[in-house]
C-alpha cells in the first residue's frame, strides 16, 4: 500500500513506512503525520492526479542522518533552539515518545509525530536560555526602595492604591475593553476629614465604602481609555473630599432618621428614664433643671446611657444585653 | 497550528521604543529619597534575533542606550499574573519559566497557586436532522495558574511582563492585575474652603 500521494498535513491513512525509505518495519498504525509522504509530488501541480509516471517524477533527495547524531554532549542548546519553533525530531536528541499506545504497543516515536508538533514546546526556554535572557534584561530593571520593605510602611507613605488589569490573548483583536477599568482604593482615616465631613462623605459615597476595612473604592469605567478613567477617579476623589467639608443650608434639616449613630441625648429613652427617676424620687428635691442635671450626673444614669447607646449601635449581642440588664438593675436599685 | 498570537514570541524583547529617544538631555540618576525612584526609560535596544539556529550569537555588540528620566517610577505593591489554558502541563512549564525569570531578575515572588479548573460541558444532538435520543457530549476544560509578585517597580514590571508575554505559548491567555501605590495628591490635603471663607457657596 504505497501511499505516495498524500501531501496534506493531516492524512489519516495507513502508513507504509517503507515508503519513506527509512524504516523497514511495516507498522500498520493509523496516525496523523505531518511529514509529507513524497515531497516531489508536491512540486507538481495538476498532472499528478492524472497519472504517475515514473519518469516524470523528480528523484527524491536522499535524506541524511539526523542532526542529533552529530550533536555533542556539551553543546550550546540555546543555539539549537534560540526562538520559539515547532518541534523538530531531527534536532532534539531525546528519545521522546508521545501518543496513545495501541494494543500491545508503545507510544509512537518522535519521528513524524504530530502530537509532539501540536503541543507548545519550551525548548527555547531552558534554564540556560532564561539565564542568558535575564542577564541581558538586568540593566533595564530598577530596584525597589529598601525603606519600603513592609506593607505597613507602604500603606503609610502611599495610601492610595490604583488597580488596573491588562489582558493578553490570541484573537482577532489585541484590545480588550475591560482593560479600561480603573479601581481606586483609599482608607478614609488617611484623609483629613472632621466629623461632619466624614459623615457627609459616607452618605455621598454609599455602597462604595466598606465599614470593616475602612476602605473607599472608586471604580470607573465610563471613559474609553484607561488614562481618562484614572483622571476621572482622581477627580471624583477630589470632589468628594471638598464637597464633604462644605456645609449646605439644607443640611440643617437633618432628622433623627438620617443620623448614622444613635445618640442618647434628647432621645425618648432619656425622657423616659428622667420621668421614672423623678417620679421615684422623693418630691422633696427641687424640680426643674437642677434635678435633671443631678440625676444625669449620677454614675448609674451614665451607665444606663452607655448601655442603651451600645445596644442601639451594635445590635443585640450577649454582652450588650447583659450590660443593659446590669445598668437597669443599678439605676432602679433592684 | 493555533491562531498566531498578536504578541509573537521573539528573542529578547524590548525592540519597542519606550520614548527614550526624546529624552536626550543627559540626566544623571539624581538623589532619590527612600520612597521615590527615578524611572529608567529604555530606548530602542538593537538586539537582533538570529534566524538560523546554527549561530549562537543573539546579543548584538552595539551598546544599548539606557536613558534615565527624572519622573518617579511607579511602585507596584502587587502584580498578579494569572494564565489560563486548556492544558495544565503547558501551564506547569510556563509557571517554571515565569518563576525562574522572576528569580533571575530579582523580583520577590509572593505566592504561586492553582485555582480549580473550570469545565464547560455541552450536550448536543448527534445527528443533523432527527434522532433526538442520540446526543453527543463535549467539554472544555480551562486550567488556571496564578503568580503573585510583590514590591516591584514600574520599570522592572515593564521588563518582566514584556518578557513573559512575548514567550506566552499559543493557546494560553493571560491577565495581569497591577496594584500601584501613590501618595495622597496635594490638592486633597486641605479643604479649599478654609482659604476662601468668603467664597459664595454655589446654589443647590
TrEMBL record, chain A:
Residues 45-69 have a biased composition (Basic and acidic residues). It comes from the Eukaryota. GO terms for molecular function: structural constituent of ribosome. Residues 159-246 form the Small ribosomal subunit protein mS35 mitochondrial conserved domain. Residues 37-69 are annotated as: Disordered. One of its GO terms (biological process) is mitochondrial translation. GO terms for cellular component: mitochondrial small ribosomal subunit. This is Mitochondrial ribosomal protein S35. It comes from Amphiprion percula (Orange clownfish). The lineage of its organism: Eukaryota, Metazoa, Chordata, Craniata, Vertebrata.
From TrEMBL, chain B:
Keywords: Mitochondrion, Ribonucleoprotein, Ribosomal protein. Residues 80-177 form the Small ribosomal subunit protein uS10 domain. InterPro entries: Ribosomal_uS10, Ribosomal_uS10_dom, Ribosomal_uS10_dom_sf, Ribosomal_uS10m. Its main location: mitochondrion. GO terms for cellular component: mitochondrial small ribosomal subunit. GO terms for biological process: translation. GO terms for molecular function: structural constituent of ribosome. It is found in: Mitochondrion. Belongs to the universal ribosomal protein uS10 family. PANTHER family: MITOCHONDRIAL 28S RIBOSOMAL PROTEIN S10 (PTHR13334), SMALL RIBOSOMAL SUBUNIT PROTEIN US10M (PTHR13334:SF4). This is Small ribosomal subunit protein uS10m. It comes from Amphiprion percula (Orange clownfish).
Amino acid at each position: 500500500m504505497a501511499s505516495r500521494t498524500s501531501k496534506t498535513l493531516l492524512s489519516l491513512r495507513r502508513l507504509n513506512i517503507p515508503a519513506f525509505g527509512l524504516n523497514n518495519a511495516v507498522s500498520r498504525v493509523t496516525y496523523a503525520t505531518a511529514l509529507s509522504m513524497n515531497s516531489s509530488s508536491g512540486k507538481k501541480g495538476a498532472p499528478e492526479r492524472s497519472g504517475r509516471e515514473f519518469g516524470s517524477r523528480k528523484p527524491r533527495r536522499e535524506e541524511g542522518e539526523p542532526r542529533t547524531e552529530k550533536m555533542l554532549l556539551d553543546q550550546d542548546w540555546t543555539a539549537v533552539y534560540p526562538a520559539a519553533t515547532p518541534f523538530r525530531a531531527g534536532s532534539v536528541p531525546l528519545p521522546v515518545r508521545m501518543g496513545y499506545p495501541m494494543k500491545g504497543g508503545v507510544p509512537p516515536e518522535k519521528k513524524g509525530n504530530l502530537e509532539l508538533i501540536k503541543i507548545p514546546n519550551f525548548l527555547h526556554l531552558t534554564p540556560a536560555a532564561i539565564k542568558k535572557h535575564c542577564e541581558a534584561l538586568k540593566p533595564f530593571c530598577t530596584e525597589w526602595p529598601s525603606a519600603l520593605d513592609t506593607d505597613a510602611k507602604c500603606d503609610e507613605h502611599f495610601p492610595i492604591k490604583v488597580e488596573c488589569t491588562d489582558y493578553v490573548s490570541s484573537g482577532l483583536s489585541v484590545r480588550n475593553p475591560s482593560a479600561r477599568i480603573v479601581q481606586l482604593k483609599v482608607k478614609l482615616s488617611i484623609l483629613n476629614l472632621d466629623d461632619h465631613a466624614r459623615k457627609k462623605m459616607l452618605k455621598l459615597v454609599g455602597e462604595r465604602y466598606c465599614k470593616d476595612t475602612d476602605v473607599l473604592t472608586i471604580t470607573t469605567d465610563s471613559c474609553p481609555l484607561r488614562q481618562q478613567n484614572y483622571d476621572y477617579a482622581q477627580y471624583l476623589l477630589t470632589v468628594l473630599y471638598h464637597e464633604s467639608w462644605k456645609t449646605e443650608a439644607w443640611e440643617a434639616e437633618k432628622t433623627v432618621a438620617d443620623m448614622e449613630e444613635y445618640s442618647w441625648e434628647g432621645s425618648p429613652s432619656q425622657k423616659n428614664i428622667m420621668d421614672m427617676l423623678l417620679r421615684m424620687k422623693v418630691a422633696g428635691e427641687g424640680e426643674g433643671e437642677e434635678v435633671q442635671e443631678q440625676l444625669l450626673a449620677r454614675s448609674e444614669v451614665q451607665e444606663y446611657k452607655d448601655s442603651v447607646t451600645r445596644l442601639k449601635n451594635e445590635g443585640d449581642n450577649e454582652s450588650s444585653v447583659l450590660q443593659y440588664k446590669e445598668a437597669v438593675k443599678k439605676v432602679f436599685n433592684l | 497550528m493555533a491562531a498566531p498570537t498578536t504578541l509573537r514570541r521573539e528573542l529578547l524583547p524590548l525592540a519597542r521604543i519606550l520614548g527614550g529617544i526624546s529624552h536626550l538631555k543627559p540626566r544623571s540618576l539624581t538623589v532619590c529619597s527612600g520612597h521615590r525612584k527615578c524611572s529608567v526609560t529604555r530606548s530602542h535596544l538593537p538586539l537582533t534575533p538570529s534566524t538560523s539556529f546554527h549561530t549562537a550569537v543573539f546579543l548584538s555588540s552595539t551598546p544599548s542606550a539606557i536613558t534615565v528620566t527624572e519622573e518617579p517610577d511607579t511602585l507596584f505593591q502587587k502584580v498578579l499574573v494569572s494564565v489560563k489554558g486548556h492544558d495544565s502541563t503547558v501551564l506547569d512549564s510556563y509557571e517554571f519559566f515565569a518563576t525562574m525569570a522572576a528569580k533571575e531578575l530579582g523580583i520577590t515572588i509572593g505566592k504561586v497557586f492553582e485555582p480549580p479548573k473550570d469545565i464547560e460541558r455541552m450536550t448536543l444532538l448527534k445527528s443533523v436532522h432527527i434522532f433526538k435520543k442520540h446526543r453527543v457530549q463535549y467539554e472544555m476544560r480551562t486550567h488556571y495558574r496564578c503568580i503573585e509578585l510583590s514590591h516591584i517597580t514600574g520599570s522592572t514590571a515593564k521588563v518582566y511582563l514584556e518578557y513573559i508575554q512575548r514567550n506566552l505559548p499559543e493557546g494560553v491567555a493571560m491577565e495581569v492585575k497591577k496594584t500601584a501605590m501613590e501618595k495622597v495628591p496635594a490638592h486633597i490635603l486641605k479643604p479649599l474652603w478654609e482659604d476662601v471663607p468668603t467664597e459664595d457657596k454655589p446654589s443647590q
